[in-house]
Amino acid sequence: MVTHGSSYELMRNLKLLNEPSINLQRDDHLQLIRQNLRKYIKEAYEKNQHAYNLRTRPRAIDIGETVFRRNFSQSNLEKSFNAKLSPVFIKAKVKEKLGNLYYVLEDEDGKHSGTYHSKDIRS
Fold this sequence. Notes:
Elements: H1 6-13, H2 26-53, E1 66-70, E2 89-98, E3 102-107, E4 112-117, E5 121-122
Antiparallel strand pairs: 1-2, 1-5, 2-3, 3-4
């Protein structure tokens, strides 16, 4: 009975193990290693993809919908304006959709306020 991994080395030296031995060419051996690597890389990719996408939700904002856009104001000493005291989000309306994640927004009074990524928009 083998109780420790180091016993295998001793048993191999005494030729007590009947292990099948296959002499592979270098190219064949490397091909087997590459196949295993592909399998492990694919498994790791799928595991990481699942963990990354676990808490993401697809966003669908319709044209004409009222949303809140992030306010990117900066402080100004001359005007005595402190940005940290300004509102973080400002009410806006979706004017058009650009691609999957970008939206053209306008303020409540109809003034063009710019293009915003969906991460900077709250419904």
